[in-house]
Amino acid sequence: MPPRRTFVAAAACALLLGLAPARATDTVSANDTARFLAGMSPAADSPLAALTKNSAWQEHARIFDSEFERLEQRQLSRIRAWSEQNLTAPRPTMLYMFSGPDFIYANAFFPKATTYVLSGLEPVGTVPDLTAMRVSVAPTLHQLRASLGTILSYSFFTTHKMRSDLRVGRVTGTLPILYVFLARSGKTIREVTPVRLDAEGALQPDVDADRGSATRGVKIVFAGSDGEERTLYYFSTNLTNDSVKNSKFLKFCETLAPGDSLIKSASYLLHSGEFSIVRDFLLAKSAAVVQDDSGIPLAYYDPGHWDLQPFGHYRGPIAIFGRRYQPKYAVAFRESRPLDFGIGYRWRPHESNLLLAVKTLADVAREASVQAALEERGSESSTSQPVAPIHHSAARHAPIHHSAARQRPPPWFNWFFHR
Q1: In the 8-state DSSP scheme, what is residue 124?
Q2: pLDDT at residue 410 above 70?
Q3: What DSSP state is assigned to residue 27?
Q4: Is the pLDDT of residue 400 over 50?
């Protein structure tokens, strides 16, 4: 073989050998994806590492560093301190209805939970192969920041704005926001799985996108600094009475009860008869409820079964919800304890209110015994199947699909829910 051909062949061989190890790192993990979207550096050997040299990503990282540092100082650190002092017997499960993808406040209020269940009308959405987004990375990251604007500033999502921001583009729905909040909360994502609930409320793999009647969601297994695995569920589901009767979402939640519940910036939906089933469920299955005044009306808390502890100041609802003023709330908050952070629609600290409702020990024990009996009976007839995780890969990505054929809320609901 002539010298030149020998050299070319040797160089080609070396190139192929050099590429072989790289193929082992072609897979983009969910954790690296989350860190990248959160403006945090992925692993050094991740295919996404090269994209962190992009000026748009670097600007994105600077903005998020600043925003989340302010959020930590102004809100999250104070919420964790409040929780440590006042939630003295936290349950392993926390339920957060009407939450959307708000994991960051769920984790701040209930950092010791091992199972988080969040729900909202917004679909799970998709996070495609980010390594193929070199051209569109700047608008994608801008859209993501825009969707988080109000929750970073005021503690709640503006639902219709979030839907608009994450309805277009390649990164859509709640999954990218959950990723950002998990990463910025110091969590390591280990597994992401598309799931649905069957007719019995059992968790199943979501492998058939054409089943429009199924309640769909995502299961995320993650770990904190202690290395202990925890689970986050997000379900896209309508909680009006007519819909929740058929969705089996509450049946799934019942398998995890009793738990602790968080309700904030919930558009006063639980004041309405259209949501009485969810309201009754939360009262029956919660060991403790942390809520602002947009949650369960005070009249539904039986003082013989609940210890009520008010914090902050009750100024009444903001103008758009003015008809939801509660005279009983005003009386209860005359002797409230101080609150050093803002929360809910009245997001300024001197205007915010928070109610901690703790169920009596006798009621909790009674509910636990009933739940144990249900679990024992359910284990004998369980038909749930193992679910397969989503793999984020530079070569292949399995997105979560959602059928457009989902139940619609009543006409007035869309206006009422947009907050």
Answers
A1: -
A2: no
A3: B
A4: no
The answer to whether 351 and 302 are in contact (CB under 8 A) is no
Per-residue pLDDT tens over the stretch 94-125: 999 999 999 999 999 999 999 999 999 988 98
**Cα within 13 Å of Cα(3), Cβ side:** 0
CB atoms under 10 Å from CB of 403, counted, come to 14
Query: Which range (25-34, 113-122, 260-269) has the least confidence?
Result: 25-34
Q: Of 295, 241, 314, nearest to 273 (Cα)? A: 241
What are the pLDDT digits (tens) for 129-153? 788 776 678 888 888 888 887 667 6
Chain centroid to CA 306: how far? 27
The secondary structure of 208-235 as a DSSP string is -TT-TTSEEEEEEEEE-TT--EEEEEEE
Indicate if the alpha-carbon torsion angle 253, 254, 257, 258 is positive or negative: positive
| The one-letter amino acid at 59 | E
- CB contact set of 302 (below 8 Å; sequence gap of 6+): none
Q: Put residue 144 in one of left, alpha, beta given phi > 0 → left and psi -120 to 50 → alpha.
A: alpha
Residue 95 phi/psi, 5-degree rounding, is -110, 135
Please return the burial class of 55, using the count of CB atoms within 10 Å of its CB with bins 0-12, 13-18 and 19+.
exposed
Entry field: residues in the chain: 419
Measure Cα distances from 45 to 21, 42, 118, 289, 329 in Å: 11, 8, 33, 44, 55
Burial (CB count within 10 angstroms: exposed 0-12, middle 13-18, buried 19+), residue 206: buried
